[in-house]
Design a protein that fits this description.
Elements: H1 2-13, H2 20-31, H3 36-46, H4 49-84, H5 103-116, E1 121-122, E2 128-129, H6 131-134, E3 154-156, E4 161-163, H7 168-177, E5 182-191, E6 203-213, H8 218-233, E7 239-246, E8 249-258, E9 275-284, H9 286-291, E10 300-307, H10 308-316, H11 323-326, H12 329-332
Parallel strand pairs: 1-5
Antiparallel strand pairs: 2-4, 3-4, 5-6, 6-10, 7-8, 8-9, 9-10
Helix pairs in contact: 1-4, 2-4, 3-4, 5-10
This protein binds 2-{3-[(4-chloropyridin-2-yl)amino]phenoxy}-N-methylacetamide.
2-{3-[(4-chloropyridin-2-yl)amino]phenoxy}-N-methylacetamide binds near residues 208, 246, 279, 282 and 288.
Length: about 350
């Protein structure tokens, strides 16, 4: 009998309930008229008198245990719904930390903003191109070294499939699809077969502009670029144009801005020249207009191009191109306060 009582206690200890009905079922099973405790009590009556004292004590102990267990079940059940609604579901969630804009994105957006104030619209094009849009339509001679596997990533030679080496291919597509006046700004990723170092990378970003209309002159080019330089680097910025060469422009020039660090006095950033080279530009070569079916006798235009990495290097004093592509948050997090 003692064993039976121990068994009842063990069973009851392991019992779990989830509702009032289950508590009542528990009570009936153990303390009900036909319950386990009454079975024990019936047997108790037959027990010899000398054992009654000890057994009676045990029976009372288990009864109390069962009753307490039922009381605890009731308490716990009442507590549960309260606990669930104890969380205030209207509280704001844990804040997610915002990422930061990449310096190249910041600078690209700034350049686009400046030119959109002059009426330029953004144009886009494919990164995988053909010889015609990257070289042929841009007056590159047949034997030009850029057309070589050594300088350009070819996916296929015949027919030619290659990664664009400059964003000028976007402008060629724009000229093929639109009649002048054309006023576009073309940002994009470009690819060149170069050994990676602090100053060169096989992937970089350019932004080019193209303006074609009637009577566009070199003076228009110069004033447009002066406006850009002053918006980008500050109202005191000076510019200078040096003669240069590109296959797609004639005449061509490099544009320098007065050093953004020393203001032109000379420092180690401008190598004590007072000037920083920031872009190439020129009047669109008549051959280029003709290739895209634009009559050079009626229309003229200018174009310019710059490397976004270079502008961002000057703006933020980034000393190594590789930082732009490594995704190191210690570098990226420094642009937290930029938009
Ligand atoms: C540079 C120089 C330049 C252009 C890009 C261009 C495009 C067409 C026609 C004529 Cl469709 N020109 N683009 C012109 C001069 C310079 O970029 O140093 N870029 C990083």
């Amino acid at each position: 009998m003692l064993e039976k009582l121990e068994q009842i206690k063990k069973e009851a200890e392991a019992f779990v309930v989830n509702s009032e009905e289950e508590i009542e079922a528990f009570r009936i099973q153990y303390l009900g008229k036909k319950g386990k405790m009454n079975e024990v009590f019936a047997e108790f009556k037959k027990v010899p008198n000398e054992q009654k004292r000890e057994l009676g004590k045990k029976i009372n102990e288990i009864k109390t245990f069962l009753q307490e267990k039922i009381d605890r079940f009731h308490q716990e059940l009442q507590k549960q719904p309260e606990e669930a609604s104890g969380d205030d579901l209207t509280l704001p969630g844990d804040p997610v930390k915002w990422g930061t804009r990449h310096p190249l994105s910041i600078v690209r957006r700034e350049i686009i903003d400046i030119f959109s104030r002059l009426g330029y619209v953004v144009a886009d094009g494919p990164e995988i191109e053909d010889d015609h849009h990257v070289f042929g339509a841009l007056n590159f001679p047949e034997e030009h070294p850029a057309r070589d596997m050594q300088d350009t990533f070819f996916i296929e030679k015949q027919p030619d499939v290659l990664l664009r080496t400059h964003t000028s291919s976007i402008q060629v597509r724009t000229m093929e699809q639109n009649d002048p006046p054309i006023r576009v700004i073309c940002p994009g990723r470009v690819f060149r077969n170069e050994a990676i170092s602090a100053r060169a990378h096989c992937i970089f970003h350019q932004i080019e502009g193209l303006y074609i209309a009637k009577d566009v002159s070199f003076a228009d080019l110069k004033q447009t670029l002066l406006y850009f330089a002053r918006e980008m680097f500050g109202a005191d910025t000076q510019i200078r144009l040096r003669p240069s060469y590109f296959p797609f422009t004639e005449p061509s020039a490099e544009m320098d801005v007065s050093c953004t660090i020393c203001g032109g006095k000379g420092c180690n950033v401008c190598k004590y020249t007072g000037w920083l080279e920031i872009m190439g530009c020129g009047m669109v070569d008549p051959n280029v207009l003709e290739s895209s079916d634009i009559d050079p006798e009626v229309y003229s235009g200018f174009a310019f191009g710059m490397g976004i990495e270079r502008i961002a290097m000057l703006k933020y004093q980034v000393k190594d191109l590789r930082y732009y592509f490594e995704n190191d948050v210690r570098f990226l997090a420094q642009f937290e306060n930029e938009v």
